[in-house]
Amino acid sequence: MGYQAHLRVWRGDAEGGELRDFTVEANEGEVVLDIIHRLQATQCSDLAVRWNCKAGKCGSCSAEINGRPRLMCMTRMSIFEPDEVITVTPIRTFPVIKDLVTDVSYNYQKAREVPSFSPPKDLQPGEYRMQQQDVNRSQEFRKCIECFLCQNVCHVIRDHEDNKANFAGPRFLMRIAELEMHPLDSLEENTGADRTAVAQSDHGLGFCNITKCCTEVCPENIKITDNALIPMKERVVDRKYDPILRLLPWRKR
Amino acid sequence: MTEFERHAYDVVVIGAGGAGLRAAIEARQRGLRTAVVCKSLFGKAHTVMAEGGIAAAMGNVNARDNWQVHFRDTMRGGKFLNHWRMAELHAKEAPERVWELETYGALFDRTPDGKISQRNFGGHEYPRLAHVGDRTGLELIRTLQQKIVSLQQEDFKETGDYEANLKVFAEFTVTDLLKSDGRIAGAFGYWRESGRFVVFEAPAVVLATGGIGKSFKVTSNSWEYTGDGHALALRAGASLINMEFVQFHPTGMVWPPSVKGILVTESVRGDGGVLRNSEGRRFMFDYIPEVFKDKYADNEAEADRWYTDPDNNRRPPELLPRDEVARAINAEVKAGRGSPHGGVFLDVSSRLSAEEIKRRLPSMYHQFKELADVDITAEPMEVGPTCHYVMGGVEVDPDSAQSRVPGLFAAGEVAGGMHGSNRLGGNSLSDLLVFGRRAGLGAADYVAALGSRPSLSEEDVQAAARLAVLPFEGGDGETQENPYALHGELQQVMNDLVGIIRKGEEMKLALTKLDELKRRAKNVVVEGHRQYNPGWHLALDLRNMLLVSECVAKAALQRTESRGGHTRDDYPQMEADWRRKLLPCTVEDDGITVTEQPQPAMRGDLLDLFEYDELQKYFTPEELESHRARLGKES
Amino acid sequence: MTAGISAPGRPSIRARTLRTDRWWLAPAVTAASLFAFVVYATIRAFWNGAYYAPPYISPFYSPCIATNCVPGSETIYIFGDWWKLSPALIILIFPLGFRLTCYYYRKAYYRSFWASPPACAVSEPHRSYTGERRFPLILQNIHRYFFYFGLIFNVILTYDAVIAFRDADGDWGHAGLGTLVLLVNAALLWLYSLSCHSCRHIVGGRLNHFSRHPVRYRMWTFVSRLNARHMLYAWLSLFWVAFADLYVAMVASGTISDLRFF
To answer: Shortest CA distance to C210 belongs to which of B116, A234, A224, B114?
Structure first.
């Protein structure tokens, strides 16, 4: 049943740090987060790790396990060989605070910069009518648990710190797509602002080269690239690059 | 004297789940400068775990539904121990609160005519739960989070500062409430990230910290559920009621260990799942209580017909109220007929086709596949009871959500009274919205009516800081205690001795052990420094858990009857006399005091919503003297 | 390395990646396959021969658009006689453009040729990155026009498959292995085109209220199902179009003879 698992955990803070080796007991049916917790309870009580629900629903325990961005609570130990060294590091796109905990405030800043849902002025609460087929697409995007693994893996900011200022990342481009496809969002009617244009100009949709890592790491299996980013790019083409559509009179969507 | 980071607000909301965020939105919209404090990151609160839906009598699926029906269902579910006024407000206001979410951008599942779809759930007479698949809690929290962002964007437009009127303090824990002249004056806490201490000056505080599940070993609750709000309220001089009522959900996962306690939604049974013991027997037929005999099938043939023809057959006993099912599972396991890992089998694989299971229960299929490597379309699940919800909480005024302490408000799971002795599924999310808003409103009214602002005492601030760093000093040094180990022991005590089935002797033993743990907790030592130090955080939370656990154990020992989420092996009957009594806990010196207090009598027109025969099962004859049946009035 | 994973404040880990799996395998296979195709297609495009074996015409050379196209392949000479090079060079621009701007192939070659990124969570070797915001990559936005042209080619290649139901003398009602090859080729090209992301957008994706356009919603649902396998169709059709050309070339050059069914 139980065995001794070999863990290599990054410990340190913004000043520096290193990978350290530990041997921790592991039992059948456990996940990486269990082993991290056991390490914390038995060997280093001040090991910093962020977690909450431990059921893959809150998106707190994002880390990189053997170099792959994953939720620790959703990574079963049984996928590793018992004698394999399991490397656990903080996500590498954001500043580290301590050990496995990173400063993800970038994401909250970007969230603030996306124009919010703008309710239709002529409808009172209780009068909203929407068809299921019209909300399906946005509902898929609202499955997002904000684990920020897509933000972490996206090479646009992972490999280029300087792009952070001009790029909102897959999660928030998807948020724009969600509102853009919302059947009752009235931002354009209320303020004249166009979400697709904003996605391109302010949030850096053009940085995305659709290499799909965001989709690959999404623990909710949201098809971020196919269903949000590419449709947004196509909508940008509609408004900006398609000469024929630009000649046609404005068509009601 | 140490200098601390200081902030002044009109109201500080502690907790950023559904209730806290709704309270903050209300307070900010009423013009208060508002701070929201959350223990984890913004948007990660335990509300995300809610699956089923938000109960609100909108009547979208069945037009006969209305607030009176919802009110009746809620009171029945709570075995009439609920505060009637809270249940009334809740039933009346829930639909508005749900509709309001749509104006914030929420996207619920729809009916064919484009309204919000509503689903059936245990204890609700009509389809009533507004939902988004089985991730309604996530939708709720995200919607409120995004509404907060939109309010911040408005402030940014006006002032150039997103946080001018509404600021979120994420990864922040409040350790003490500060008072002056008996009123709330502020709060003291620390940034989890840096360990830096912060003093809030605020005349009003809203508690919205959720529950206490982390005091139990097997629980569906996250690490945040350490009863912080309950303990803060107690230490500030407020009272807790109904603390003896803890809901154990009958079906939590029991295997593998990493997910022990995580919920298996009620819908599995609603859609045809059956419970079997190790002998393969559908044992629930053996546990149908007398009062439910006419509503539940006593043979498999009839029970199976119910799924397709509910009008002419009685319900399968797997759909008995949560407390009954939890007790039955418990009894089977104790009798040695449990599954290999100490639960029973919940089987849907032999009942529905694989495609049907994946279509109806997508996230359960996903959850078992990913977490347990179990294919629920091919094999049964192993399930057992798990600590899920505490009905008890801060005693509040139903309309304003204010506690006994002026300026201290509470909403959501941390508030008591609304659910009586047992909460219905779906009533939790609506509770958060209705009373979250009322708490924000209550705080706004309170602050507006305030003549002068209370001022903080520097002495209290210094005392709070000294208390917070105690775990680094290591008590008297003779025996040093590890917070993790102590926490484990506490969970074991509560699970074994004050768990789902209770006995007087066991609870007395529990109280002795709790005393012992309390003494040992003074010697807890943590290593490292204050920067993001989980050991230190746990040491501070442990204090709250111990206090609240004592409250649960003492109240449970005192209530010598069985009702809803409180089952006494030595007092198995429900007593009408006990329905009239509440057991408020308060803190005196270092210990919990439990007293008896009469339950406020229900308003006549609400009492008249029920049939006399039904009320007789719960009320004493003299309480029913004013019922329409006794006065000879027609219904 | 630029200020990416080694930027100040980030966890100090020197390794470019800590992945322990063979992450380089997928981009390597992709690069090798694409390279092999490009080499084959270039050779065949310049070959200017062995593309017509009645009744089969190689998809690389269809339609016959220059007068130097083999007589008897029954197509109009749109291009006139000034073009002296291989007609394939003109024809292939369109499928090449379609595939080059395709959302799937972009991912494939950005990863495998540009290493931008080579694989997920493996840092890329470039100093700076501007994405598809500037020339020339901003031209990727004309994908939908290549899609429209691609449809024309699909019609022509379907026509070629239909006229392959003849024998070498032009009599109808016959078929051989080559007929089957061209039929499969046409089918795969349709699947690839219809599963295209631009197609998905055009048929319905741009709408916000599906409920008001039930027919387009059904089309969108259908295309969405195909779209989920766009990558598969991209590879199958790419492989098959080369195979179809090879088959015709081998028959035309007499290396093998076509297997006649009836």
So the answer is: B114
Distances (CA, A) of A138 to A144, A181, A228, B108: 11, 6, 9, 11
Asked if the B251-385 domain carries CATH number 3.40.50.300, the reply is: no
The CATH number of A105-247 is 1.10.1060.10
User: What subunits make at least 3 CB pairs under 8 angstroms with A?
Assistant: B, C
Taking contacts as CB-CB distances below 8 angstroms, the residues of chain A near C21 are 66, 68
What ipTM was estimated for this complex?
A: 0.96
Smallest CA–CA distance, residue B388 to chain A, in Å, is: 13
Q: In this predicted model, what pLDDT tens digit does every residue of B513-563 receive, in sequence order?
A: 999 999 999 999 998 889 989 999 999 999 999 999 999 999 999 999 999
Residues of A in contact with C137 (CB under 8 A): 209
pLDDT of residue B361: 81
Q: CATH number for B458-598: choose from 3.20.20.70, 3.30.1780.10, 1.20.58.100, 3.30.70.20.
A: 1.20.58.100
Search chain B and give the residue with CA nearest A179: B105
Give the residue numbers of B marked as catalytic. Answer: 322
Structure tokens of B507? 């609870």
What is the SS3 string spanning B357-403?
Answer: HHHHCHHHHHHHHHHHCCCCCCCCEEEEEEEEEECCEECCCCCCCEC
Q: List the chains bordering chain B where 3 or more Cβ pairs fall under 8 Å.
A: A
- Whether chain B has a CB inside 8 Å of the CB on A54: the answer is yes
**For residue A249, what pLDDT is reported?**
58
Over residues B471-481, the mean pLDDT reads 77
Give, for A49, the enclosing helix (H) or strand (E).
none
Given this model, what pLDDT does residue A139 score?
96
Residue B290 has pLDDT above 90, yes or no: no
Residue B621 — pLDDT band, cuts 50, 70, 90? very high
pLDDT confidence of residue A253: 46
Q: Which chain A residues contact residue B526 at CB under 8 A?
A: 45-46
CATH T-level assignment (fold) for domain A3-102: Ubiquitin-like (UB roll) (3.10.20)
pLDDT digits (tens, 9 = 90+) for C75-132: 555 555 666 777 788 888 999 999 999 999 999 999 999 999 999 999 999 999 999 9
Q: From the CA of A245, how many Å to the nearest CA of chain B? A: 30
- The length of chain A in residues reads 253
**Chain C contacts of A204, Cβ < 8 Å?**
131, 133
Give the pLDDT confidence score for residue B241 in this predicted structure: 98
pLDDT per residue as tens digits for the range A66-116: 999 999 999 999 999 999 999 999 999 999 999 999 999 999 999 999 999
For residue B90, how many other CB atoms are within 10 A of its CB?
A: 28
Hey, is the C-beta of A120 within 8 angstroms of any chain C C-beta? Answer: no
Count Cβ atoms below 10 Å from residue B299 Cβ, excluding itself. 10
Residue C1 is predicted with a pLDDT of 44
DSSP secondary-structure letter at B314? Answer: P
A-chain CB neighbours of C197 within 8 Å are 226, 230-231, 234
The answer for A 34-53 residues in CB contact with C (under 8 A) is none
Query: Is C6 an 8 Å CB contact of chain A?
Result: no
Is the pLDDT at C71 greater than 60? The verdict is no
Q: Classify domain B5-245+389-449 by CATH number.
A: 3.50.50.60
Q: What is the mean pLDDT of residues C143-147?
A: 95
Q: Inform me whether the C-beta atom of residue A142 falls under 8 Å from chain B C-beta atoms.
A: yes
What DSSP element (H or E) covers B92?
A: helix B84-104
CB B195 within 8 A of CB B201: no
> CB atoms < 10 A from the CB of A125, how many?
16
- Write down the domain spans for chain A: 3-102, 105-247
Whole-prediction pTM:
0.94
Please tell me if residue A95 touches chain B, with a CB cutoff of 8 Å.
no
- Cross-strand pairs, A6: A23, A85
